[in-house]
Hints:
By secondary structure, this protein is of the alpha/beta class. It has a domain at about 1-165 and about 195-225 and about 285-295: NAD(P)-binding Rossmann-like Domain (Rossmann fold). About 40% of the residues lie in helices and about 15% in strands. The chain has helices at about 10-20, 30-35, 80-100, 135-150, 170-180, 200-210, 235-240, 250-265, 270-275, 295-305; strands at about 1-5, 25-30, 45, 65-70, 105-110, 155-160, 165, 195-200, 220-225. It has a seven-stranded parallel sheet with strand order 3-2-1-4-5-6-9, with helices on both faces.
Amino acid sequence: MILLTGATGYVGAALRAALEQQSQSLRLLARAADALSAAPRSESQQWDMASGDDLPKGVFDGVTAIIHCAGLAHRHADERDYQRLNVEATSDLARCAIEAGVPHFVYVSSLNLVPAEAVSPRNPAHLYPEPKENYAASKWRAEQSLREMFAESHCRLTVVRPGLVYDTELTADLKMVNKVLRWWPWLLPSVGHRSMVARGDLVALLINCALGEAGAPAGEEVLLATDGAVYDAERISRALSQGMKWGVMPQWLCRLAGRVLDWKKGSEPGSHWRSLSANHWSGDAPVVAGWQPSVTLESLASRETGRS
């Protein structure tokens, strides 16, 4: 049986649907309101990561693998909330899983904790400097905590570091960019670079890990989930754009438009531009045993355009 946390999130919901479609034995660990909405094919147990309550009894009975997707991803959240949810609650879950003898723990981390200039993106987190951004820093601390706990146990840990996740249903920064492009007549400038991965491909990798076909059972403790492409803002905007554009927006105009968005959303001045122009790790991703990506942002977008 697979135990899944975060089953109502962007990745977790797709993962839950895929596992149920494959008729995998599945148990959901979720907040009370979320657990009540569980499909009949899935068991559910109630646990609120933010509460500090003990895990329900019997939650690990029969569990062969845990996929931990739950956590705080909102980049404007308080640093204390990131620490409490992404680090402390994750560590509590892992500690209880180890005590219960769960054989395999799959942790969904983030490629954002790897510096843009890093030679190897699969090093243990402690070999990288602590990221300045709160979300990435919480993943950096959580990875170190998990590594220490599992090193002293007979249970296996797989850390999956995905790039920015996309799908036909967009979320977070990609959703905002797509919304702006509907009325904005220019493409975004060629700034920033990052790795990305399709949600369906990430889901397939996580399932393969839980089934023992990838990750620690296959001899790889840290995995990168990317589609192999390098994206800048212009490439992303070309893929998401529907219809003709006047050309590529000058950087000064993009900065100005970002300031307007900062003001409208009550964000720190310059935050939208920094997010757009930031450089993230985007080198050649190591091959993952038992998995390979099937799409890029462009191929997924063109496929959906052809269907519409």
